[in-house]
Amino acid sequence: MTLPGPTRPKVELFDLCLKYISCDEETLALQGLSLSVPEGEFLALVGPSGCGKSTVLSLVAGLLRPTAGTVLIDGRPVSGTSRQIGYMLQQDYLFEWRTVLGNCLLGPEIQGMDLRQARLRVTELLEKYGLSGFSGHFPHQLSGGMRQRAALIRTLATDPEVLLLDEPFSALDYQTRLNLQDEVAGILRREGKTVIMVTHDIPEAIAMADRVVVMTPRPGRVYADYRIDFSGPPGSPGRPDAPAGRPVPLQTRNDPRFPGYFNSIWKDLNPDVMA
Questions:
Q1: Using CA atoms, how far apart are residues 59 and 75, in angstroms rounded to an integer?
Q2: Which residues, 6+ apart, have CB-to-CB distance to 149 below 8 Å?
């Protein structure tokens, strides 16, 4: 069941089916998956390994075409890659021979955008998110968290409307991961992006997302859908600019509602253990 969103749908998936076919076998990755993501929402996908979470991102990005079903962005069918979509992978994949600024300008260069305007935007993003002093540095001179921040700015450089995050913090140590969750969630909400994030980390999903969707084992489909609400009145703990007083991810982990969300999602992912 898809919960009603606060605004019009930005991304819609209708009855998706995807089969991977090789010389030896046919694998049904997704079957009957339907999902709607309102504009400006941060949605996290969780599920067992191999259930098709990353496949969903590839379908939204236009890198794969469904065997059956439809993917819509702003009501229009996805038929290939688009500037509307930004995709951030597990590894930062920064080019070691390019500076931070050069790496962040890669997308605009490939897409043939006005490089003068793109440089202004990237410079503004680097300044805004604490990397302005490192624009001339090379990736090997950055910490892991700084590299991921640079990768995020590179993704934002083309000003996509939808951000796809595929386990973007999995390669980082625990402390850096927690700090970066706060930073990235804040950046994406301030930039007004619609976000779909894949993660195996239940606390990470709860802490960062407005909604958590649990997928079934392969063939993947929606099993459960949770609206995550840590909102509070103005002046509640968290950043002043957080939507509806929502605390930053690190603070949500101390919210008395957090364990309830965790236990419900964990039970959905481990029904045999609970039985």
A1: 15
A2: 129, 130, 131, 180, 183, 184
3-state helix, strand, coil in the chain (%, to 5): 35, 25, 40
Pairing of β 26-38 and β 211-215? unpaired
User: Could you tell me which residues are beta bridge partners of residue 35?
Assistant: 13
Question: How many angstroms separate the Cα of 2 from the Cα of each of 40, 170, 206, 225?
Answer: 16, 28, 17, 7
Alpha-carbon Rg for the chain in angstroms: 19
CB 66 within 8 A of CB 220: no
How far apart, in whole angstroms, are the C-alpha atoms of residue 148 and residue 92? 6
Q: State the number of CA atoms in the 13 A half-sphere of 38 facing the CB.
A: 13
Rounded CA-CA distance 92/215 in Å is 26
- Structural contact between residues 17 and 28, judged by C-beta atoms closer than 8 angstroms: yes
What does DSSP say about strands 26-38 and 194-198: parallel, antiparallel, or unpaired? unpaired
- Put simply, whether the predicted model's pTM sits higher than 0.85 gets the answer yes
Quote the CA–CA distance of 122 and 108 in Å, as a whole number: 10
Query: pLDDT tens digits, residue range 190-228?
Result: 888 999 999 999 999 999 999 999 999 999 999 999 999
* Helical axes 115-128 vs 144-156, angle rounded to 10°: 140
Count CB atoms within 10 A of the CB of residue 264. 15
CA atoms within 13 A on the CB side of 78: 30
Specify the amino acid at residue 180: L
CA distance 70 to 17: 9
Can you say how many angstroms the Cα of residue 124 is from the centroid of all Cα atoms in its chain?
22
Spatial separation of the C-alpha atoms in residues 202 and 28, rounded to whole Å: 25
